[in-house]
Amino acid sequence: MQKEWRFDTAAVHVGHQPDRATRAVSQPVVPAVAYAFPDAETAAAVVAGQMDGTYYGRYGNPTTRSLEEKIAYMERGEDAIGLSSGMAAISSVLLAFLQHGDHVVVTKDIYGGTYNFITQMGPRFGIQHDFADCCSVKALEAAIRPNTKAIYVETPSNPLLTVLDLRGIAAVAKSRGIPLIVDNTFMTPYLQRPLELGADVVVHSATKYLNGHGDVVAGFVVGTSQVIDFIRKRISGDLGQNLNAWEAFLILRGLKTLGLRVRTHCENARQVAEFLQSHPRVRALHYPGLPSHPQHELAKLQMDGMGGIVSFEVEGGIQEAQTFMNALKLAMISFSLGDPETLVQHPATMTHFSVPKNERLRFGITDGLIRLSVGLEDPSDIIADLRQALESLAGLITGGETTALTGQ
Ligand code: PLP
Q: Is the CB of 63 under 6 A from ligand 1?
């Protein structure tokens, strides 16, 4: 593997050689479940892990393997495993580090599915948790218990784009001998490489920017060979969370343009954030690229770009947020992010619906909050769409006061 390749070159070439049999340039898709061994001894050695090789689809696949090598390279990890969803990656890594009686410290605003896993599934298996505001190293330290076996963070967070100091958190984790797990979905390795900043494990929802075309659900865990082997053999292999060859192929194809796409997402999001910043119907704006963002300086140090997500609050509450979203003509109301299309969602009633209201408000996810995944369309079209949708709120709001439609 060429360790000196720049990102865009690696995105095209790493993990891939022209097919030996056909000389095909594009990655061949190997759908086989089982692989024939030359003899019984080789079969035994591969299964025992004494020899490299693929033996059964639930534990690995050659097409998926090329992708895993590419992702490991991009994230600067020893190894990676591709799984059937971002939640498969998150659940398998948490189950790898935590068992009955263990405790995990989790940063306060995280993806709703991760919140569900930690608060609903975790306790069923005797796994305890505490949410801490990981913006403060003191709050993080105070949440650590003698049985804390993992620290789990997302930065920038979903949906508020809180930026956490990964170097600072990693130093605390190292001093206590606790592994630090980072969800790097919003950034991709193009913009942020948590392992270089001291994290132990990276997880991804590849459903988002890594695949980038809205047609695959997938996830990755990146870490040491020991951690990845354990997940492959003891967790995801047994739970059946493998990523199939066809979806791996689609992600390999999507990854070739990751740098190109992310650069455009970042530039479009910057223009959108600058437009929203000065709009009278916008109450709060969360975008790490603006000097008004509380962790703007940290973001500039830690991230190679500000990403494609912008969150903001419209004046009012749920009804105003929904009126705004219904008025959009280009942006689509949708759960996902990182696609070519501009996608908009309302965390209080969509991605974070299952978070109890008091918790949600405590995390800062208000009724008027909207998350925008800025797409690859021409930025002036995206901005024109947002402008006309914000104007639709004018009838609901008079002189800065909300009318009877004030959200609950
Ligand atoms: N992590 C983040 C930050 C997400 O936004 C999501 C999904 O939206 C996930 C993880 C879960 O990924 P998936 O839907 O691929 O399971």
A: no
194 and 302 part of one domain: no
Domains identified in the chain, total number: 2
207 lines ligand 1 (CB under 6 A): yes
Domain end position, chosen among 233, 255, 277: 255
Same domain, 363 and 392: yes
Domain assignment present for 136: yes
Residues 217 and 97 in one domain: yes
Of the residues 209, 232, 255, the one at which a domain ends: 255
Q: Where are the strands (E) in 270-385, listed by range?
A: 282-286, 309-314, 332-333, 343-345, 369-373
In a domain, residue 407? The reply is no
Is 138 annotated as catalytic?
no
Question: Which tokens in the block code for residue 178?
Answer: 């606790």
300 flagged as catalytic? no
397 near 315, Cβ under 8 Å? yes
What is the number of the ligand 1 atom nearest to the C-alpha of 208? 15
- If pLDDT is split at 50, 70 and 90, which confidence band does 49 have? confident
Q: From the CA of 335, give the closest atom in ligand 1.
A: 8
Ligand 1 centroid, distance to 359 Cα (angstroms): 20
Q: Does the beta carbon of 27 sit less than 6 angstroms from any atom of ligand 1? A: no
How far from each other are the two terminal CA atoms of the chain, in whole angstroms? 56
Mention every residue, 6+ apart, whose C-beta is less than 8 A from residue 153.
106, 107, 110, 134, 164, 166, 169, 180, 181, 182, 183
Is residue 58 annotated as part of the catalytic site, yes or no? Answer: yes
CATH number at residue 160: 3.40.640.10
* Domain ranges, residue 283: 258-402
What distances in angstroms separate CA 264 from CA 40, 58, 157, 407, one per listed residue?
52, 36, 21, 35
Predicted TM-score (pTM) above 0.70:
yes
Query: By alpha-carbon position, which residue is closest to atom 14 of ligand 1?
Result: 86
Q: What digits encode the pLDDT tens for the residues 322-363?
A: 999 999 999 999 999 999 999 999 999 998 888 899 989 988
Spacing, Cα 111 to ligand 1 middle (Å): 7
The answer to the question of residue 39 being in a domain is: no
Q: What is the pLDDT of residues 75-134, one digit of tens each?
A: 999 999 999 999 999 999 999 999 999 999 999 888 989 999 999 999 999 999 999 999
Q: Is residue 158 part of a domain?
A: yes
Is 111 in the active site?
Answer: yes
